[in-house]
């Protein structure tokens, strides 16, 4: 797991700026199955957004704590009800963004 510095977080925020949320948190809330799906998506993409829907009982701070406590995924930024997530891929050929981050 990469410990992110300020410049690295800024780079990741810039990379995620034009992205649309890939996952949603809805009525089911935060589950282990949902977290497993996040982890497999991190292995493919390394960086994406998650939106908390209006019908969800989950607060942004709860989601951030749940994700960071139960996985190696880091929350880079929260914007309203959207979280920007980053994690290093376990598959070497998918480490495009993390390779850039380590060079900053």
Could you characterize what this model shows?
The chain has 104 residues and is an alpha+beta fold. It has one domain (6-102): 2-Layer Sandwich (Translation Initiation Factor IF3). The chain contains four helices and four strands. It has a four-stranded mixed β-sheet with strand order 1-2-4-3, sandwiched between helices. β3 and β4 (82-86) form a beta hairpin. It is globular, with a radius of gyration of 13 Å.
Rounded to an integer in angstroms, the radius of gyration calculated over CA atoms is 13 Å
CATH topology: Translation Initiation Factor IF3
Name the overall outline. globular
Count of all domains: 1
Distance between the termini: 16 Å
- Low-confidence spans: none
Proportion in β-strands? 15-25%
Give me the number of helical elements.
4
CATH architecture: 2-Layer Sandwich
Pfam family, one: CRS1_YhbY
Keywords: RNA-binding
GO molecular function: RNA binding
Protein name: Ribosome assembly RNA-binding protein YhbY
Condensed summary:
It is built from 4 helices and 4 strands. The protein is of the alpha+beta class and 104 residues long.
What descriptors fit this protein?
Translation Initiation Factor IF3, about 100 residues, 4-stranded mixed beta sheet, 4 helices, alpha+beta
Sequence-ordered SSE layout with sheet pairings:
Layout: H1 6-16, E1 23-25, H2 32-45, E2 47-52, H3 60-70, E3 74-79, E4 82-86, H4 96-102
Parallel strand pairs: 1-2
Antiparallel strand pairs: 2-4, 3-4
């Amino acid at each position: 797991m990469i410990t992110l510095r300020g410049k690295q977080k800024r780079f990741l925020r810039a990379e995620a700026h034009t992205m649309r949320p890939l996952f949603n948190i809805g009525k089911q809330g935060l589950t282990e199955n949902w977290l497993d799906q996040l982890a497999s998506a991190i292995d493919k993409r390394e960086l994406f957004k998650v939106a908390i829907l209006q019908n969800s009982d989950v607060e942004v701070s709860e989601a951030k704590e749940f994700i960071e406590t139960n996985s190696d995924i880091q929350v880079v930024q929260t914007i309203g009800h959207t979280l920007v997530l980053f994690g290093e891929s376990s598959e070497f050929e998918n480490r495009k963004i993390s390779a850039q981050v380590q060079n900053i």
